[in-house]
Specification:
Elements lengths: L2 H9 L7 H10 L3 E5 L7 E6 L3 E7 L4 H21 L8 H11 L10 H10 L11 H8 L9 E2 L8 E4 L2 E9 L2 E6 L5 E5 L3 E4 L5
Parallel strand pairs: 1-3
Antiparallel strand pairs: 2-3, 4-9, 5-6, 5-9, 6-7, 7-8
Helix pairs in contact: 1-2, 3-4, 5-6
Length: about 210
Amino acid sequence: MTKSKKIESFFDHFPPEVAEYCFQLWQDHPFDFIVSKARGTKLGDFRYSPTKGYQITVNHNLNPYAFLVTYIHEVAHRVTYDIHKSKVNPHGNEWKRNFYELFEPILDEELLPASLVHVLKKYLQNPAATSTGYTPLVNVLATFDSQPAIGTRLIDLEEGTVFQLKNLILIKGKLRRTRYICQDTQSGRNYLVAKNAYVQPQEPLA
């Protein structure tokens, strides 16, 4: 694929003002880039295999600004692993520093919306392992969705509330860092659900 064709494909997913910068990151730190199907458990991921090399995936259904944040989050993993391999915490200080340094060149209101730049500057001072763990960022990214999210955020429901997530009927339990421990009403199995996940509240169990 020629450079021009690759650039065009980037414009399909990133805000156009920063698409070329994101493409340059791909050239500077090569990896297999996959735009993935939507996944309920993660927005993107980074993997390394001795046989397949570096791979980054990002969910296709993210709005351009959420896609951008997820992409740079994963590129920061790529850079960190290249330097330290698996000798450091995946979301430790080395990754946090690289995440900030990769984002810093485009933290500009001429390139990104002022509301997003304002939140990102605070978030990147000490970024969480997942962007869904930082409510101000979740809220500002949601404003760029073409369609509003359906349902209620799990964090806004009381403990013990019964809710539906995909084909599961769960009971909200205790918060563990950025996710709630929720119990399946049928199997009794526990699931970790992101605190900002949108769910469908259900009638209390009889």
